[in-house]
Amino acid sequence: RLEEFLKKEVDLELSTLPDFEERVIDFSEVEQLMNSINTIPAPCAPVINPQAPSAATGTSLRVCWGLFSDDTIECYQLCYKPVSNERCSDEQAEHTLQVKETYCTITNLLPNTQYEFWVSALNASGISPPSERAVYVTAPSPPTIKSKKIRSCENAALVCWESRDINPVDSYVVEL
């Protein structure tokens, strides 16, 4: 039967012509909804670590922080400035670095100087609130030994030095 049916010529005519309206459909609301489903939230504020004992030299500091959430992070924005009692100083200008890791070593700093650090996390949705601010201190410069004032005898030695730092130094370690 199928073979006979397929041999017949079938002429299909529609009795009425289809009447289509030309409509413009606005999908902007649907598109916004779809985009909102795929977006990631802005990250939470990172937590900056206190200064580690071996994190400073006379001209550099290693700053570390962490993120205690499962946020997606593209990079971090580390900001710092020297701590100063003066209100409008050129040295108090804020510096900003873009960092991929959760640590950064900042160089070209002044010896025996306090610096204030804070960090924010960034992703495609935006920037997090800044972390709490942490104060780090660079190591003092080595003192200058006054070689003309050195005195010694069989059982003792007198060694004099002076600090090259502007800020006072807490203590010195003398090695023999």
Automatic annotation (TrEMBL):
CDD domains, A to Z: FN3
Domain Fibronectin type-III positions: 46-142
Protein's name in the database: FSD2 protein
Annotated organism of origin: Anhinga anhinga
